[in-house]
Design brief:
disordered C terminus; two-stranded antiparallel sheet; about 80% helix; 2 strands; mainly alpha; 16 helices; single chain
């Protein structure tokens, strides 16, 4: 069928690799949105503006996390129905996903615009950053409808095995965003408002072009609001699979907000360094995330087709590819950390602090990779509840407390003063691999139980032995 890819036949490793490459390029371009935004903002508007943009992203992520998780559930349902060749259900699942995303987009926009200043004050954002952060954030969330629209189209196409078409739309949006950044900020002098507007216009254009293309070229997706039909049964299946992921993403986002609150306590220079280094970090971990997503679709289709035997082979091939990539990226980032930080700012204090972050965090990318790959198998099988608890444990029980205790001289807890390590911002950096390590260990243990095999939309025969490789 045109615009789709059957991952239930052929070499497991080759299928996953070929499916992942367009997604990898796409994610790189998607990160280029904020990457270029922050380079231009940092270079032309200063470290204060850079820090303001960085402080906004954990809050934006919090607003969109729940619906992204539910969309993930919808994608998995779509991929399993597609693997079973039930195209009527595929069409209903697509319509249902678009309707849900549209409703949530409106709700999150209203919440974000109404409470933006209160949120930043709760995060203890330095007072000098508050006006610019509030301005950028309010404009950005006003465009969530087109953000969800574009990402909904991309999620559906990936569920159908098509990771190439969304890439073309994303490339268009990325280059348009870069051009508008330069026009609005450098040429017209619109400041932080220009950066937010550039992103909204670029995403809106990509969504419009995607709708026109799909309505004229795709067999299963016809974007016509008047013909959309909502299927409660499919919505409940998507919710069952996606809600744990959505809640996981929401609590992860809240964890990022909590970490940002800790970072904010060390002043503008550290906030700016955390923003720039974190953007580089986000770019560097994309391959691991993409391989995980490709593996999820592979697992979903093969379980839908009753090919559970291919799942273990797919996991092993994916782990090898992702691990080799992670090692190469680690070496590159550590070798070029200071020139990379210099892309964002000329401030030497910010560059040194960001370089320290990159040295510590990138040295442990293999932990992050393993954690995400095992999670990809579980998500593809439709088992998202246990992985949610594992992720939340590693974040809220390990990473956030570690960041607090390692960075502070002392911590007030239930009326008691508990001594801390007093490492300053360095303690925050070390908390990141600590969380990854625990997350990987717990994910591996759960994967070995084999219980994830019984969580799919289509029931899979599970061997008597409960331990699997």
């Amino acid at each position: 069928m045109k615009g789709t890819k059957d991952l239930t036949q052929g070499s497991e490793g080759r299928n996953i690799f070929r499916f992942a490459i367009p997604m990898l390029v796409g994610h790189m371009f998607q990160q280029l949105y904020t990457f270029v935004d922050q380079i231009i903002v940092g270079r032309f508007l200063g470290k204060e503006a850079l820090a303001s943009v960085g402080a906004s992203f954990p809050v934006i992520f919090t607003l969109i996390a729940l619906i992204i998780g539910i969309a993930t559930g919808g994608t998995i349902v779509i991929s399993q129905f597609f693997g079973a060749k039930n195209f009527t259900k595929v069409k209903r699942a697509i319509d249902t996903l678009f309707i849900v995303m549209a409703i949530f987009a409106v709700i999150m926009t209203v919440v974000g615009v109404t409470f933006s200043e209160e949120i930043f004050r709760l995060m203890k954002l330095p007072e000098e950053l508050l006006p610019t952060a509030n301005t950028y954030f309010s404009i950005y969330v006003s465009g969530l409808v087109v953000f969800f629209g574009y990402n909904g189209v991309a999620a559906v196409l990936r569920g159908l095995g098509d990771s190439t078409t969304p890439l073309y739309f994303l490339i268009l949006a990325t280059f348009l965003n870069i051009g508008l950044d330069l026009l609005f900020i450098v040429k017209l002098g619109w400041g932080i408002e220009g950066a937010a507007l550039a992103t909204i216009i670029a995403q809106g254009t990509a969504f419009a072009v995607a709708v026109i293309y799909l309505n004229n070229n795709h067999d299963l997706i016809k974007f016509n609001i008047r013909e959309f039909s909502f299927d409660w049964e499919i919505f409940k299946q998507s919710l069952r699979i996606g809600l744990p992921t959505g809640l996981q993403q929401t609590f992860v986002a809240l964890g990022m907000v909590a970490l940002m609150g800790i970072v904010n306590g060390f002043g503008t220079n550290v906030v700016a360094a955390y923003t720039a280094a974190g953007r580089l970090d986000s770019l560097a971990i994309i391959p691991s995330m993409v391989f995980s997503q490709a593996l999820s679709t592979f697992v979903g289709q093969n379980i839908g087709a009753g090919r559970i035997d291919r799942v273990r082979k797919g996991l092993h091939r994916t782990m090898l590819m992702a691990s080799v990539t992670a090692v190469l990226i680690t070496l590159l980032v550590i070798l070029f950390k200071y020139p990379l930080m210099g892309l964002f700012t000329r401030d030497q204090s910010v560059i040194r602090t960001g370089g320290e972050y990159l040295t510590i965090v990138t040295s442990f990318y293999l932990l992050f990779t393993g954690m995400f790959i095992y999670g990809g198998v579980m998500r593809g099988a439709g088992d998202t509840l246990i992985p949610m608890f594992l992720t939340l444990f590693s974040l809220w029980v390990i990473r956030v407390p570690a960041a607090l205790f390692l960075s502070k001289d002392s911590v007030e807890l239930f009326g008691l003063t508990i001594p801390g390590a007093g490492m300053g911002e360095t303690g925050i950096w070390w908390s990141i691999p600590a969380g990854w390590g625990v997350g990987l260990l717990l994910s591996f243990i759960y994967y070995r139980t084999g219980r994830w095999k019984s969580k799919s939309v289509f029931k899979v025969k599970v061997e008597p032995a409960t331990i699997t490789r």
